[in-house]
């Protein structure tokens, strides 16, 4: 119940957090009590520093200090915009430049590598929130997805068409 209340408070304030199940590791469960000199759970840490347990978090919430102490979760749309603009040419795919994890991703990597244009990749298999969110955000239901200067170019079929028409390099360089 106390852990559930703590999670509810953190979520209510859009605080970015991760958790560790102390029941999954008895050594950590006992060791953290000694380490923190705090005998009960849950324990909230910010930037490696113990803030306290549920009572402290409730007091911080009541005083308005909780919002100043804890980092806010980045909204998905802001996170997607940030990722899309991480590099001038961004490719969202299954796998990475080094190891494509599907046939479509492998094909687009081969095309991209032959252009000589520098690009970054994001492995959508590593982040389900981005994987699903980007489909809605871009209104493009499949992967890979190629972005140039923050704008969606398209998927593998579009990239193939641009390559065949000789337009791919100017598009990647942001010339049109």
CATH fold-level assignment of the largest domain: Glutaredoxin
Describe the global form: elongated
Number of domains: 2
Provide the residue-averaged pLDDT.
Answer: 93
Helix content: 40-55%
Supply the helix-strand structural class. Answer: alpha+beta
* Termini Cα gap: 57 Å
The biggest beta sheet is recorded as: 4 strands, mixed
Strand order of the largest sheet: 4-3-5-6
The CATH architecture of the largest domain is 3-Layer(aba) Sandwich
Poorly predicted sequence stretches spanning 5 or more consecutive residues: none
User: Superfamily at the CATH H level of the largest domain?
Assistant: Glutaredoxin
| Radius of gyration over C-alpha positions, nearest whole angstrom | 22 Å
Please tally the helical runs, counting DSSP H or I stretches of 4 or more residues.
9
CATH class of the largest domain: Alpha Beta
User: β content, as a range?
Assistant: 5-15%
Q: H/E element string?
A: HHEEHHHEHEHEEHH
Give the beta-strand count.
6
Please characterize this protein's 3D structure.
This protein folds into two domains: 2-69, 3-Layer(aba) Sandwich (Glutaredoxin), CATH 3.40.30.10; 76-173, Glutaredoxin, CATH 3.40.30. The chain is 48% helix and 14% strand. It has nine helices and six strands. Helix 1 runs parallel beside helix 3, helix 5 crosses helix 7 (128-138) and helix 6 packs parallel to helix 8. It starts with a helix and ends with a helix.
């Amino acid at each position: 119940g106390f852990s559930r209340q703590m999670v509810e408070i953190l979520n209510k304030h859009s605080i970015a957090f991760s958790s560790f199940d102390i029941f999954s590791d008895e050594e950590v469960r006992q060791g953290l009590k000694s380490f923190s000199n705090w005998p009960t759970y849950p324990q909230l840490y910010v930037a490696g520093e113990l803030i306290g347990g549920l009572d402290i978090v409730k007091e911080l919430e009541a005083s308005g200090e909780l919002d100043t102490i804890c980092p806010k979760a980045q909204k998905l749309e802001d996170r997607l915009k940030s990722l899309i603009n991480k590099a001038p040419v961004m490719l969202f795919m299954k796998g990475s430049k080094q190891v494509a994890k599907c046939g479509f991703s492998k094909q687009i990597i081969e095309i991209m590598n032959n252009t000589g244009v520098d690009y970054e990749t994001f492995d959508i298999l590593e982040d389900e929130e981005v994987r699903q969110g980007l489909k809605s955000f871009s209104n493009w239901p499949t992967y890979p997805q190629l972005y140039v200067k923050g704008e969606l170019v398209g998927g593998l079929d579009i990239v193939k068409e641009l390559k065949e028409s000789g337009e791919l390099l100017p598009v990647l360089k942001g010339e049109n």
